[in-house]
Amino acid sequence: MKSVIGISLFSFFAIVASDDVYKLETKYIDVPIDHFSYTSDATFKLRYLINDTHHDKGGPIFFYTGNEGNINSFAQNTGFIFDIAEPFDALIVFAEHRFYGESMPFGNQSYVSPKNLGYLTSQQALADFVYVIDHLQNEYKSRWNGKKLPVIAFGGSYGGMLSAYIRMKYPASVLGAIASSAPIWQFNGLTPCEDFYRITTGVYASYSPKCANTIKNSWKAIRSFTQTPDNKKNLTSLWKLCNTPSTSDDIDKLVGWYSEILVNMAMVNYPYPTNFLTNLPAYPILQFCSTLDSYTWSDDYSLLKSIGDSLQIYTNYTKSAKCNDINETSSNVGESGWDFQACTEMVMPMCSVDSDMFENAAWDFNKYTNDCSKNFNVRPRSQNEPILEYGGKDISTASNIVFSNGLLDPWSSGGVLRRINDNIKIVVLPDGAHHYDLRGKNDEDTSSVKMVRSFHAKEIKRWLKKYYENYAQVHVI
Ligand SMILES: *[C@@H]1O[C@H](CO)[C@@H](O)[C@H](O)[C@H]1NC(C)=O
Ligand SMILES: *[C@@H]1O[C@H](CO)[C@@H](O)[C@H](O)[C@H]1NC(C)=O
Ligand SMILES: *[C@@H]1O[C@H](CO)[C@@H](O)[C@H](O)[C@H]1NC(C)=O
Ligand SMILES: *[C@@H]1O[C@H](CO)[C@@H](O)[C@H](O)[C@H]1NC(C)=O
Ligand SMILES: *[C@@H]1O[C@H](CO)[C@@H](O)[C@H](O)[C@H]1NC(C)=O
């Protein structure tokens, strides 16, 4: 959604690897299209993935609250749950978020109109998840003499927001939540709008101030170099674009595409190669900056050449990309779903300022709503919906949640980084990227991620211990 917010938010045009590392069974459950009125009985099939190999007796349900994308790509990138399922005797479930992957309430008509898309909200999704949990409780009740299994929610990014929210809204269904890189405070008035790009800039500058400075110079270079049609063509071959940008809208799109890549590299700046967003080497920013720093540039052209070549770390790591389609990310269904959510309930104000390396951009809510109207024929009611719905900073009545954030993750800007109460734990990975702690273990893992993962396990154990003790008391009749 370049035209609206400059960058597309979580942007999971995630690759689904051809051979899955983690195996789960695919199931479907009928859930109401509208949980909040009784005017229609219409239902649709929500997909969830399940593996009960390690489940034993009263073992918990580890429940991943799916985000804005195909649920299997999250299952394949959340190895932490699989790593700890065996010692906890846990049942593993990944539930898909409605309007993503295969969980389309109106089939191939789901995205055709605001009338259909209107059922794409976090509240409806949480209610879906509660249906899935209830269904699982019935299905597995014989495993523990008819008793209710404890449920631990997990999620990263928007999924992490949902795991925190489901614990807050439905404490009877969910005992506790691991909310990783969950920017629940990336909303109006809760966080300065420039924090996101300030943090991103810091990551690049921490590898090399020169690299951040070259990037800072590149925006003006793009704008001035592409003034003439000939130079537009020139840049097209320099950056190996699929189509030559012609209008100023196209140049805006190009700028958005490029800045989105810079943000994405920070999000997935993991210490080993991954294929979450795309195929990438270990520490892609280190690779990008060392390539960029190896060039000397003297004018717009040589500057843009050095950027174009360096971007190949992200766009062409496999060496098999034909050309770069600056339309690509916005044409992806998963992303336009998130863009719709960002145009209704999830308005996250962002801006960039002189002191960061991005092109200056003020936060302009009026322009934002006009773009939403143009793209989706909807407007956000206000910037405050999620604050009314989920409490903003006033969450002191919540409990049994761990908020974890990597401080090198742009999204830590909206994360919960300070103490709320004794029953909400705040942990940080000083050197961590976006929901790094939810990934499976790896030989290259940093010591901070190992510590955070064992902290999660300890908290879950504590919640469960209390649950089983209380349960024994309450259910002795
Ligand atoms: C569940 O995971 C185990 C490995 O932990 C695997 O052997 C098994 O095939 C999986 N079950 C299903 C139904 O995919
Ligand atoms: C949409 O789905 C319907 C019903 O499943 C099917 O008959 C139709 O061919 C589909 N249309 C497109 C364009 O895929
Ligand atoms: C692109 O522009 C640069 C600098 O203006 C020039 O040296 C180069 O020859 C141009 N290349 C093409 C293919 O037009
Ligand atoms: C982006 O997509 C639109 C519509 O599909 C097309 O007209 C335009 O040429 C594309 N722009 C670029 C730069 O690829
Ligand atoms: C990707 O790399 C290959 C091999 O170096 C090159 O031929 C191709 O043009 C590159 N594609 C892009 C989009 O950079």
UniProtKB/TrEMBL annotation:
Coarse class of the protein's main subcellular location: other
Reaction(s) catalysed by this chain's protein: Cleavage of a -Pro-|-Xaa bond to release a C-terminal amino acid
Signal sequence, renumbered to the chain: 1-18
EC identifiers of the protein: 3.4.16.2
Pfam families in alphabetical order: Peptidase_S28 (PF05577)
Record's keyword terms, sorted: Carboxypeptidase, Disulfide bond, Glycoprotein, Hydrolase, Lysosome, Protease, Signal, Zymogen
Coiled coil stretches, renumbered: none
Origin: domain of life: Eukaryota
Keyword Signal: yes
Listed GO CC annotations: lysosome
Keyword Magnesium attached: no
Gene Ontology MF: a single term: dipeptidyl-peptidase activity
Protein function: Cleaves C-terminal amino acids linked to proline in peptides such as angiotensin II, III and des-Arg9-bradykinin. This cleavage occurs at acidic pH, but enzymatic activity is retained with some substrates at neutral pH.
Family (UniProt): Belongs to the peptidase S28 family.
Subunit structure and binding partners: Homodimer.
Record's protein name: Lysosomal Pro-X carboxypeptidase
Species the sequence originates in: Phyllotreta striolata
Lineage: Eukaryota, Metazoa, Ecdysozoa, Arthropoda, Hexapoda
